[in-house]
Amino acid sequence: MDLLKFGQGNRFSLRSLWPEYSQVDVTAQRHFAMPVFFLLGRHDWHVPAVVSACYFRAIRAPYKRLIWFEESAHNPPFQEPGKFERVLIDQVLPAT
User: Fold this and answer.
1) pLDDT digits (tens, 9 = 90+) for 20-48
2) 79: helix, coil or strand?
């Protein structure tokens, strides 16, 4: 039931927010004053990994890290939960 509700909530958010967030150009922001982590699924077609990696290379931050999830698409927390948890504990948490 939780998975069904998750999907319904996701669909509602996408429909409701699409007009606004489809106009946002995140690539305009290239300088960050905090650590930046990109946790990318290698097989993501919603946000193509190659596009995300290109943007990652263009940004400047005091610390930045790109972590690939080789067995994931758009949802590494669900597709590789063990690795995702380890990355948060071992890499993200110490940098914050």
Assistant:
1) 878 888 888 899 999 999 999 999 988 88
2) helix
List 65's β-bridge partners, or say none. Answer: 37
pTM score over 0.85: no
Between the alpha carbon of residue 74 and those of residues 4, 50, 53, 87, the distances in Å are 18, 13, 14, 16
Mean pLDDT of 4-16: 90
All domains in the chain, ordered by first residue: 2-95 (3.40.50.1820)
Residues 66 and 41 sit within 8 Å (Cβ to Cβ): no
Cα separation of 68 and 39, whole Å?
Answer: 6
CA distance 81 to 36: 20
